[in-house]
Structure formats: C-alpha cells, structure tokens
Write a structure and sequence with these properties.
Helix content is about 45%, strand content about 10%. It has a seven-stranded parallel β-sheet with strand order 3-4-2-5-6-1-7, sandwiched between helices. The chain has a seven-stranded mixed β-sheet with strand order 8-16-15-10-14-12-13, with helices on both faces. A six-stranded mixed β-sheet has the order 20-19-21-22-23-24, sandwiched between helices. Helix 27 links the parallel strand 19 and strand 20. The C terminus is likely disordered.
Length: about 900
C-alpha cells in the first residue's frame, strides 16, 4: 500500500470535490482553508462548533492512500463522523493488535484511544513514516506528559512531513498557568495560532445574515425571593471577607461574590490552591466549602421549586449540621430561615407555596402564543423544544405540563413529609385524590444524605457538604430522571378554547399536554415521525458529554420554536449556528426566559465577560509570542524532541571518536499507559517496551521490579489485600522488589488528613498497614516520589551500571507455569521460607526446591552437593554456613567457661577472681 504522507497536499479542484464548501459559513470556510494550507491550533468561542470543519478536513483525506489519526474523540463523536463519512475507510472499532496492523495498512481514517495508539507506535505496529497526519480534538487538555503529547512526539521523531491540526472550544483553559498556550503549542508541534471569538468581524457578519427571531422575556421574581436572595448574598459576602481576613498572604483576587456565582468557580479555585491546600487551616477549607453550599442554595431557589428549597433549608437548620459550620449562626441566616417559610406557607400557616415565576410565563407561551402561531401558519407538524440545564428541571417541567403545578407541589410536599395542617383554596382539590396521596405517603422516603452526613464534624465537614449538595438532586424523590421528555398538545390547546392559567384549579386533572411514555430503545427520529400532533420536547443542553448532542437534536427535530428555560451561552450560539446553516425564510422563533436583575442574569453576564477577557488575553499573547523556527518538529534541532542521554559520547582513548551510548530499556506493563510516567521515562532517553506482565508494573533491571501506586490506588489496595498478593509475587521472583508510592504533582507531597482517617474505626490506618507490609516483606523497598518527573529521574539513577532486562524473562516470570510451580508443585509456606535463606535467589530457587525435597535432606548434604544444586560455590557456601555454623561464637563459649554472665551482666565477679577481661579495642 502506497501512502500519501505529505503534510500539505496541493489544494486543487479535485481535492475539494468531496468538500461541502457551499454549506459552510464564511468564517468556517476561512478556518478550513487556513488549516488545509498550514498546520495550526484553532481556538474558537464556545458554541461555535467546528464539527463541519473537521468533517470536511476528514473528507479531504478520506482515501486508502492516506492514513489519518484522530485523537480525543468521544464515542458519540466517532459514531457521528462515521455516519457522515458513509462508513467508508473509517475505523472506529479496534479489537486486537493483529487486526489493527491490517487496518493501518488499509489506510483511511482511524479513531483511536490514546492508550492503544501509544502502544502501537512503540511496538511499530503502525508505519509511522507513512502517516499522513493527526487531528487533535480538545487541544486544551494537552500537556507535556500526557499520552497525546507522547504520541505526537513519537510521530514527529520519525515523520517530518505529516500534518498536525488541533481544535479547542475552551479559551479560558489557555489562560491558566504560566505561558499555557505556548506550552500547548509546543506539545502539539504547531507554530500557527488561529483565534476565533464571537466578536470576530467575520463571525458576526456570518451569523447576522440569518438571525433567529428572539423574544427575550425578563421575568421579575417575587418579593419573597428578592428577600431571600439578599440574605444569601449577605452571608456569601461575609464568608468571602472572613476568608480573605484569615489568609492575608494568599492571592485571592478571584475570590469575589460575583465569581462565586459562576459554574466553574470552585474548579478554578481548587486548581489554584492545590499546591497550598495543605497549608490552609481547617477554618479556610470550611469557608470555601460553605461558599459552595450557599451558591447551591441560591441557584436552587431559581432553578427548583419552593417546596424543594424549603425542605433543603430545614435540613441545613438542624443542630447536627450547625455544629460544623458558621454561616448557620449568622444573623442573616436566621432571617433566611424565617423567610423560607413564607415561600410555602401563608400568614395563617396554610399550605400555599409560591410558584416559580417562569412557570406562568412558560404555560402562557405553550397555551396561548405558540398555538396562535401554529394556527396562523396552518402547520400541524410543529415541534417545540424546551432546553433546561439539568435533568431534574426536565422532570419538573414534564410533571407540571402533564399534571399541573398544583398537584406537582402537593405531591412533592407529601414525599418530603412536610407538615400540612391546612390547605389553601387552590390546593383543596388536590386532597380529593386519595389513591395518589395514599400511595405517595406509603412510599418510604430515602433518608437525606444531608442528614446522614451531619453526624460527623471537624475535618470531614467539607466532604460532607459537597456530598450533600451533589446528592440532593439525585435521590431525594427516589426518581430516575431522564434527559428527554416528549409531550403532545391536545386539540383544546390548538383551538384556543381552553386557555386556562395557573389561577384556575378546576382543570387540575385534565390533560392538556399528554406525555409520551414509550421512550425506551426507540430512536428520537422514529418517535417524532410517529406523532402527528404538535410535539413538545423537554431536553437538557447536553444529552451526553460532547458538543454535538444539541446540534444533532436541532438537525434531527428541526424545531419551529425553542424555549430557553435556563440561560446558557453555548446553547444560544449553537442555535445561532443552526439557524445560519438552515438559511430558510421562516426564521426560528426563540423564547429566552431569564430573571432580570438577579444572580441568574449576573452569572450569565459574568460568563460572557470572562470569555471576552480570555480572548483578549490570547490576542495579546499571540501578538507578543515568540515562536521558534523549529517548533513544528520538522527539523532535528527541535528542543522538544531532544531526549536526555542519547547524545554520542567521545572516547579519549580512541582518538576522540564518538561512541553511541548503550541502549537502555524499561519494560512497562500495558495498563501503566494510563499514567504520565512512561512518557517522562522516554523523554530521559530510556526506551519503553510495552508488554503484558503479571508481576510488577516496571522492570528496570533483571533484579529490580517496581509496583507503582497512586495515593488512591494505594489505599484501595491496602484495604482489599491486593497489595499483599502483589508484594508476595514480586518477592518470589525478584531480588529487589520495590513499591513506588507516587503523589500527584499538583498536590502537596505528604499525607492529607482525609487519607489518615479510616472509614472504619476498627480497622488499621494506612501507616499501620504499610508498617505491617514492610515487616512481612523485609526485602521490599518503599520509594516515595513527589511527582512522575521525580520518578523518571529516580528510575534512571536506579538503572545506572546495571544490566538491562529482557522481555522474554519479564513475560515468563509469574506466568501460568510459574504460578503452577509455586501453588501446585511446592508448598507456598515453604517457598516463602526458603527464599529468605542466604544463597537462594530467584534463579536457583526452583531447582533447589525440586532437588532438595525437604529441609532435613538439605541439612544432610555437603557443601559440594549444594554447589551442584545451586550451580555457584558462593551461594552454596553461604547456605551451608547458615545451616551448619553454630549460633554462639567460639570466643563467647570460652568466656562462658570462666563464669561470664550469659544474660549480659557485669564482669565484676571475674575481676574478683583475677580474670582479665578481653581487650575490646
């Protein structure tokens, strides 16, 4: 097979026959042309999806004469591109190594996991010099020691002509750390940086030609909600001030109330404080956790309902929780607890919960405005798409539209066991459904995890609050939430003869929106095709973890109306892109619901501001960035491709002639390529041999075997007993077994408090278990490493002056034959005893056990007979001396004849007898 390995093929007419340029927008066409001509990194704004650009690039190279690799693609994206490319010359399923070798020789486009591809490159299963190019998705996740960077480094070492094209939709990720965008470009071996923000002139002009019809509805919140919002913000402000007061020496410019409202604030804060987290006091970590709790309460008031919010407030008000946190004792917190009751009960303690203001606006749109638009257009096949931020809200809206808000809140209050002494007039009809109420009361309410975690105090308060907030939305109602719900409009809604609103409770049991229950194992396209009435789909922004989800939904359903129940920047831009590509006369109508002058609007605007600042930073960085000429790796002078210890050494005894250094090898288990260590070992000039081995993770020399454990893996292995078995195997087959305990490079090099507290109070701690491990395996050496970089350097030092391991011996050790010999042919207890004797090594233990029969027989053998068994006079002498030499030395026996105290007493009695003590010097 002849491959076209040229990086930049000539752009001609025949090349673009496969490309749908007419379907691309102007800025997409420009990005496509830039990347076809040169390699580079494209950073676009969120929502400006580049799937069409990537698809057309793949079409350019969709030929058996090309070999293109795609990295960092999710399973859904692989299926999407496979379908769009008509499944021709596309390989997404790779089973065995031999199968992959045949597929590589067939050319085409290959979607491969990084762990598999790096092994194939090291084993020369893939012709590296014949690779046409590599496409990298999610380039913001590339760093120096990751597997993707390792793949690109191996690729550039042996292929100087292939292309590398990288894409990313996360501009803020490139602003974290020192020179982050430069380091990513250096790891990608690209010199060109293409920046495409939303405010780019070409992007603005492309999207402005086909703008959707947007109706932005600013919905005011109730007075009770305003009061509660004020109290929570006051508590958050006091918490932020206290956190800055007790940490005056730390940089906390990012810790503000405004930034605390953003979605990824705590992830950013954790990334910044990882290195100093162990130096923070318990008070500081508790305050950071309280900020997360308060943000959860604030968003819950807007995104959830009044009954759920009130139930959560009751949990936080209990004494068990108040013992471990401070914000509950604040004066504003007491006012918050009192105001929360007004959301559910009226002044005379009647059950009269406040409806979410968006409910009335949503029902008004679905019952009045959209039916009027449908009657005006005369189309009965209209589709309404309601977009929410989470699955819980999707379930909530489905219940409201199918059964009504009154019944939903009443049933929710019964599930949460809220004391209902009396009902208001609006909810009296709900109590007339005894069968539903009885079944709801009979359902056992799962104990809230907030309550379960409250009994613990002190250092576990942070973990307790995080789990409480994470699990509150999962199992409080014991309901399995879905990401998509489908309903149909009744004829009464379409005719406009039954325009009921929330104030009317007479139609509580009437179904104006009928839910579609047959959702299992049915394609969304088939469901929508089988329904003739106008459809309502309630869906999250992202059905799964990839950016193509919402775009596929829009292309499949082709909705006429979109209701943005929650605000999301990415979703808004994806709808803009969909409308621009659709380019039809009837514009898509969008209803954008947002609470004006609230934290919801502020969080949305803060996200836009932070993205704009990120792009301004990237534009300034690009203007001042110095890119080396050899950064693309196409020359041998590229510093990124240099490996330590590979430069030729001059021998002065041979006239200064250069001498190639000896090849150094480390045998690595296949499963270890999930970590960064193999890449860093290779960077130090040591060759990696990926092999499936049963004993150890790294074989450094014929005698040194290393088992690597991260902190979390170490704890689980100690608790399960797996580490004991692994150490036993290493000690049986290797002279120098080692246990490597490797810490995260972004965390402190030391035991954190959560690692020292055992989940079971009766069990040993981690240190005690490690101590027992070293006592039981005296040959085991424990290596403490602060990071993978330090581990790679340590491995290089351990290999100096030692023999290189062989793959055959590493694979044979611990195989079925060895395990059978140990567990079947030999007594395992005797085996463990014999291997501790002097002169017994991993090379001679097998023949010694077979010919020795038992220890009595061994004791009767002479030194010459032991030499024939062990094959070495030194080992035979050491073993013979250990078995036959007397325990008490001769000198000490002579001294005992003169009455020396065997118990180690003083020699005064001997002095009285006139006996001179021996000279110790």
């Amino acid at each position: 097979m002849e491959f076209n390995s040229e990086a930049n093929p000539n752009v001609n007419d025949t090349l673009f026959d496969k490309v749908d340029i007419q379907y691309m927008l102007e800025f997409e066409t420009q990005i496509f042309l830039d990347l076809v001509r040169t390699d580079g990194l494209v950073i676009a704004a969120k929502g400006l999806n580049m799937d069409l650009i990537i698809l057309n690039i793949l079409k350019v190279y969709q030929d058996p004469g090309n070999l293109v690799l795609v990295l960092n693609a999710t399973d859904s994206e692989q299926k999407y591109f496979d379908e769009k490319l008509n499944r021709q010359h596309v390989y997404i399923q790779h089973e065995t190594g031999n199968t992959r070798i045949e597929e590589y020789l067939c050319g085409g486009i290959h979607f491969l996991p990084s762990r598999i591809l790096v092994v194939d490159l090291l084993k020369n299963r893939i012709p590296i010099d014949k690779i046409t190019g590599i496409i990298v998705l999610r380039a913001h996740k590339i760093f120096e020691s990751c597997n993707e960077a390792f793949i690109l480094k191996l690729y550039r070492q042996f292929n100087k002509t292939g292309f590398i094209k990288a894409f990313s939709n996360s501009p803020q990720s490139f602003t974290m750390g020192f020179c982050h965008v430069e380091r990513v470009m250096r790891a990608l071996f690209v010199k060109e940086l293409h920046i495409w923000p939303r405010f780019h002139a070409l992007v603005r002009s492309s999207l402005k030609k086909h703008e959707p019809q947007v109706m932005e509805l600013h919905i005011p919140i109730t007075e009770q909600m305003k009061t509660i919002q004020t109290y929570i913000l006051e508590i958050m402000n006091g918490t932020v001030k206290e956190l800055k007061r007790i940490n005056p020496g730390l940089e906390m410019q990012e810790v503000t109330v405004e930034n605390c409202l953003t979605k990824k604030f705590h992830k950013i804060l954790q990334a910044q404080m990882n290195e100093i987290w162990h130096r923070l006091s318990n008070k500081s970590t508790q305050l950071i956790a309280e900020l997360k709790t308060l943000r959860h309460l604030l968003l819950m008031m807007f995104y959830s309902d009044s009954v759920s919010f009130y139930s959560t407030i009751l949990e936080y008000r209990k004494a068990e929780y108040a013992r471990s946190v401070d914000w509950v004792l604040n004066s504003s917190a007491e006012l918050l607890f009192k105001s929360a009751g007004t959301l559910v009960f009226s002044g005379d303690k009647e059950f009269n919960p406040v409806f979410c203001p968006k409910w009335e606006a949503l029902l008004d749109i679905l019952k009045v405005e959209i039916p009027a638009e449908i009657r005006k257009s005369g189309s009965k096949d209209s589709t309404v798409l309601i977009l929410c931020s989470d699955q819980r809200t999707c379930y909530q809206l489905n219940e409201i539209l199918s059964s009504g808000p009154h019944l939903y809140l009443f049933m929710l209050a019964l599930k949460k066991k809220i004391n209902l002494k009396s009902l208001s007039d609006k909810f009296k009809n709900c109590s007339k459904i005894p069968e539903i109420a009885t079944s709801s009361e009979s359902q056992p309410k799962p104990q809230s995890r907030v309550t379960r975690k409250k009994a613990k105090t002190g250092k576990e308060s942070e973990e307790k609050m995080e789990e409480a907030q994470r699990d509150e939305d999962e199992d409080v109602d014991n309901v399995e939430f879905q990401s998509t719900y489908i309903l149909t409009m009744s004829q009464s809604v379409l005719d406009g003869s039954n325009e009921t609103f929330l104030k009317d409770t007479s139609t509580l049991n009437e179904s104006e929106f009928t839910p579609f229950s047959q959702m299992e194992n049915i394609n969304l396209t088939e469901i929508c095709g089988s329904i003739s009435a106008p459809k309502i789909l309630i869906q999250t922004f992202k059905g799964d973890e990839n950016y193509i989800s919402l775009q596929n939904t829009l292309q499949t359903l082709k909705p006429s109306f979109v209701i943005m129940y929650h605000s999301n920047v990415t979703a808004v831009r994806e709808i803009e892109m969909f409308e621009a590509h659709r380019s039809e006369e009837d514009h898509l109508k969008i209803y954008f619901l947002i609470h004006a002058d609230t934290v919801e609007e502020q969080a949305y605007l803060t996200g836009l501001r932070r993205e704009k600042e990120a792009f301004e930073f990237l534009i300034e960085t690009k203007a001042n960035m110095v890119v080396p000429e050899d950064q693309d790796g196409k020359s041998d002078q590229c510093m990124t491709l240099q490996r330590g210890g590979l430069s030729p050494q001059k021998n002065t005894r041979q006239g200064g002639q250069s001498k190639e250094p000896a090849r150094r090898i480390v045998i690595v288990d296949m499963r270890e390529f999930r970590s960064d260590l193999p890449s860093l070992i290779h960077k130090r000039g040591i060759d990696i041999e990926p092999v499936t081995i049963t004993v150890g993770d790294y074989i450094l020399t014929p005698e040194i075997c290393v088992e690597r454990k991260s902190i979390s893996d170490l704890i689980s292995s100690l608790n399960s007993g797996r580490l004991y078995q692994q150490c036993m195997q290493m000690q049986r087959f290797y002279v120098k077994p080692m246990l490597l305990i490797e810490f995260d490079q972004n965390r402190p090099f030391g035991w954190s408090h959560q690692y020292m507290i055992s989940e079971n109070g009766n069990s040993f701690g981690i240190q005690e278990k490690l101590l027992l491990l070293t006592i039981h395996f005296p040959k085991l050496k424990i290596i403490w490493s602060p990071s993978p970089y330090a581990t790679a350097q340590l491995f290089e030092e351990l290999k100096q002056g030692k023999d290189e391991p062989t793959i055959q011996s590493a694979v044979a050790v611990g195989g079925d034959e060895d395990l059978d010999a140990i567990e079947t042919k030999y007594n395992s207890n005797i085996y463990d005893f014999v291997q501790r004797l002097p002169g017994i090594t991993s090379k001679n233990i097998d023949i010694f056990l077979r010919k020795g029969v038992n220890m009595q027989n061994v004791n009767n053998k002479s030194e010459e007979e032991l030499k024939l068994i062990l094959g070495n006079s030194i080992d035979a002498k050491a073993l013979y001396s250990a078995l036959h030499t007397e325990c008490v030395p001769v000198e000490e026996k002579k001294e005992n004849k003169y009455g020396r105290n065997r118990g180690g007493g003083s020699g005064r009695a001997n002095l009285r007898r006139g006996i001179k003590p021996p000279d110790r010097y």
